[in-house]
């Protein structure tokens, strides 16, 4: 049965934002989500960092565009995104610990970012301590970007899906795609054996489910793998919280102040992935290490209570740290958008616009060229 111009498989932030951007360009869209909307990488506890700091240079223009979209996105979609413009810090550790390389690296990042129109600046120790009073003496500087912040991944994906639905997209939860094909026209087969046909293309926004779906469809795997980032929810003594979204140039650390005095601590620790359940589990030894790193940078985080540890949300990674945004075939019938490497959320609003433009006009913009499956 022919259902729409585009069938989008996956109802995370990418499936939902692509559906919305396709619909507002006049296309008809059906979204098929195996579980609930925003229940995997775009689900789970806490919030996501919306930042340009630390990004690969090929993503910086997308990051700049996304930072401009985020503040007004909730109004555009007519649904909350939980975006808070807290400002973002990329901290630089002490000369004693890291020598002078840290500052030189931070300066290089700052120049790279300003070359791409991103308004970050290097702040020294005294300004850093005025901005972020809880930061320890070991931190000598930071790259500061006042436009960065945090947003709620579940609210955002659902707001996109609801906005797409209001404009006519069909959004179906609990609908797993068993396999797909491209001939004679793009089609998907559902678990109950029924088939749906797209007039133009199928879009796989299936994140960790991508290679399994490719395999069931008789296609080769893409070079990617799944990991589950580990996040900790920590309640510090005396309700201390950092004020900013903060990362670290030399340490594995990301902190985000959440509601009710909770600080989310993450930034690179991984849970133990279980292929059978398609979920990750927290790794006990890494929990303490993460807390120790956080307390070494923010001493007031030394005392308090670990409220929760979670590693249930799977994310896909690629060998070079860049996503795949490309058609699988020459005939442009199956498009894939995956491999976000733990930082896909922040740039989703910009990526979705560019991908939708490509899908509807047939012209790929230069910005998406680095994300070809066959890198050049
Ligand atoms: C713990 C954690 C912290 C993160 N922190 C940040 C951060 O601070 N900043 C940032 O920018 N990014 C961050 N990220 C990354 C970001 O959240 C992800 O890149 C983004 O959510 C990926 O969205 P997605 O739509 O591609 O994937 P998902 O949200 O996983 O959506 C894919 C969907 O496809 C569905 N699906 C799969 N196979 C099928 C099938 N066969 N049929 C139907 N449906 C199918 C799945 O059920 C799933 O809902 C973090 C990720 C995690 C897990």
UniProtKB/TrEMBL annotation:
Keyword terms: Oxidoreductase
A GO cellular component annotation in the UniProt record: cytoplasm
UniProt-listed InterPro entries: FAD-dep_OxRdtase (IPR006076), FAD/NAD-bd_sf (IPR036188)
Signal sequence residues: none
GO MF annotations, alphabetized: oxidoreductase activity
Residue ranges occupied by any FAD dependent oxidoreductase domain in the UniProt entry: 5-358
Listed name of the protein: FAD-dependent oxidoreductase
The species this protein was found in: Amycolatopsis pithecellobii
């Amino acid at each position: 049965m022919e259902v729409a111009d585009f069938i989008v498989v996956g109802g995370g932030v990418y499936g939902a934002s692509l559906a919305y951007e396709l619909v507002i360009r006049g296309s008809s869209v059906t979204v098929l989500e195996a579980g609930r909307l925003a229940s995997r990488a775009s689900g789970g506890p806490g919030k996501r960092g919306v930042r340009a700091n630390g990004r690969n240079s090929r993503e910086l223009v997308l990051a700049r565009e996304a930072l401009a979209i985020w503040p007004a996105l909730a109004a555009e979609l007519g649904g909350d995104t939980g975006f808070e413009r807290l400002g973002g810090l990329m901290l630089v550790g002490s000369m004693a610990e890291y020598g002078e390389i840290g500052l030189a690296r931070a300066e290089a990042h700052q120049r790279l970012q300003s070359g791409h129109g991103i308004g970050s600046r290097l702040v020294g120790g005294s300004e850093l301590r005025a901005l972020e009073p809880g930061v320890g003496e070991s931190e000598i500087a930071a790259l500061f970007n006042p436009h960065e912040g945090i947003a709620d991944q579940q609210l955002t994906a659902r707001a996109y899906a609801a906005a797409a639905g209001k404009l006519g997209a069909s959004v179906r939860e609990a609908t797993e795609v068993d396999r797909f094909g491209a001939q004679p026209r793009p089609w998907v087969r559902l678990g109950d054996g029924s088939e749906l046909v797209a007039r133009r293309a199928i879009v796989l926004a299936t994140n960790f489910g991508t290679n399994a779906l490719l395999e069931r469809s008789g296609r080769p795997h893409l070079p990617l793998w799944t990991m589950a980032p580990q996040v900790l929810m920590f309640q510090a003594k005396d309700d201390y919280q950092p004020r900013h979204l903060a990362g670290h140039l030399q340490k594995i650390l990301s902190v985000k102040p959440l509601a009710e005095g909770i600080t989310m601590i993450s930034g690179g620790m991984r849970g133990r992935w279980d292929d059978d359940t398609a979920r990750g589990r927290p790794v006990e030894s890494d929990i303490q290490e993460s807390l120790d790193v956080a307390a070494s940078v923010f001493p007031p985080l030394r005392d308090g209570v670990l409220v929760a540890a979670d590693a249930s949300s799977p994310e896909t990674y690629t060998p070079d740290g860049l996503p795949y945004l490309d058609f699988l075939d020459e005939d442009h019938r199956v498009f894939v958008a995956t491999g976000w490497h733990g930082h896909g959320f922040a740039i989703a609003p910009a990526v979705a616009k560019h991908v939708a433009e490509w899908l509807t006009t047939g012209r790929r913009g230069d910005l998406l060229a680095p994300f070809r499956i066959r890198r050049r």
